[in-house]
From TrEMBL:
Gene3D superfamilies named in the record: Periplasmic binding protein-like II
Protein name (record): Putrescine-binding periplasmic protein
Keyword Signal: yes
Signal peptide: 1-24
An example Gene Ontology biological process: polyamine transport
Organism: Bauldia litoralis
Lineage, opening ranks: Bacteria, Pseudomonadati, Pseudomonadota, Alphaproteobacteria, Hyphomicrobiales
Function field: Required for the activity of the bacterial periplasmic transport system of putrescine.
GO terms assigned for molecular function: polyamine binding
Length: 365
């Protein structure tokens, strides 16, 4: 159960103050977030305690979000894009600076995560981390072992070595439908800088991706969760929390499907999904109240316990389930963290190269 605000009188007073401005607006906050990415009880608690209705829409890739926010007039108050997209949106003037006086629960932010996020948002003026994690791959233990008993299940070779991944084409291989994840992963596998802006290196990564294209059933950023859980596919590049959700659903179903998530030994992307407020948000005070509520340790813990992702709230850790805080796939140890990399947004010229390369990879041209 989500703890009622009445248990936290100081928080109640702070929250009441933070939403005072929102009372002059329509009592609504329009939220745009990834699918399957919040505990609905937290949303209900926010509405019950503030009177602000949450209108909640979902998406499945960053490109959709960026296009809508750059066009303006999206109607959204709070959006949760990934860090490279945040950087581009800041540069384009599509976001408004946060009024931190209206987000007192920022005192609970995890400094180590905030510091990493500042590489995309200097001074942490526009974004507050919601969740963070890694991009690795998930696999069906039995189906992989059946096809390749000595499969290199701790390595990106499972994806990027054509001789390996071809053995799993018959049982289904999905890749995330985003160049922001796959091109850096390919660069890293090639021992190149995963944050490279060099045309020749990006094209080398695309060339590698084209060699495995015949064995990829689908490019997808949402359906792979259920596809893994149901045993419909046997291998997928995905976000840590998504694959762990798939593993949990498979276990609950009791159909004998076992899913394992891997942070490859060669390293993997560390990503951050953060709360931001569009520059033309219709209800900015309600947006600040919503972000502040979500930064309560109780809220952050409830969401992590629901989605099985690590969050950016340090104080929430004592409230996490043991199979969340104790799982190194969610909260990895320092040795693993040392091989995680981050990427930055591309300048427009490079972004065009990346977009064109990804289009060619997907089309097989």
């Amino acid at each position: 159960m989500f703890a009622p605000l009445s248990r936290y009188p100081l928080a109640a007073a702070v929250l009441a103050a933070s939403i005072a401005g929102a009372l002059a607006e329509d009592k609504v906050v329009n939220v745009y977030n990834w699918s399957d990415y919040v505990d609905e009880e937290v949303l209900a608690a926010f509405t019950a305690e503030t009177g602000i209705e949450v209108v909640y829409d979902v998406y499945d890739n960053n490109e959709i979000v960026e296009t809508k926010l750059l066009a303006g007039g999206s109607g959204y108050d709070v959006v949760v894009p990934s860090a490279p997209n945040v950087a581009r949106l800041i540069q384009a003037g599509a976001l408004q600076k946060l009024d931190k006086s209206k987000i007192p629960n920022l005192v609970h932010a995890w400094e180590a995560i905030t510091a990493r996020l500042s590489g995309y948002d200097p001074g942490n003026e526009y974004a507050v981390d919601y969740m963070w994690g890694t991009t690795g791959f998930g696999y069906n233990v039995a189906k992989i072992a059946e096809r390749m008993p000595d499969a290199p299940v701790d390595s990106w070779a499972m994806i990027f070595d054509p001789e390996v991944v071809s053995k799993f084409a018959d049982c289904g291989v999905y890749l995330l439908d985003t160049p922001e994840e796959l091109i850096p992963a390919a660069l890293n596998y090639l021992h190149l800088n995963p944050d490279s802006k060099e045309t020749a290196e990006i094209e080398e990564a695309a060339k590698l991706l084209k060699t495995i294209r015949p064995y990829i059933e689908k490019f997808d950023s949402s359906e792979y969760i259920n596809a893994l859980a149901n045993g419909d596919i046997c291998l997928a590049v995905g976000y840590s929390g998504d694959v762990l959700q798939a593993a949990d659903r498979a276990a609950e179903a009791g159909a004998g499907v076992e899913i394992q998530y891997v942070i490859p030994t060669e390293g993997a992307a560390m990503w951050f999904d953060s709360f931001i407020i569009p520059s033309d948000a219709p209800h900015p005070d309600a947006a600040h109240a919503f972000i502040d509520f979500m930064m309560r340790p109780e809220s952050a813990a409830a969401n992590s316990n629901y989605v099985y992702y690590a969050n950016g709230n340090l104080e929430s850790q004592s409230l996490l389930y043991e199979d969340v805080i104790g799982d190194p796939a969610i909260y990895p140890g320092q040795q693993t963290i040392d091989v995680l990399y981050t990427t930055t947004s591309h300048p427009p010229r490079v972004q065009r190269i990346v977009t064109r390369a990804w289009t060619n990879v997907k089309s097989g041209s």
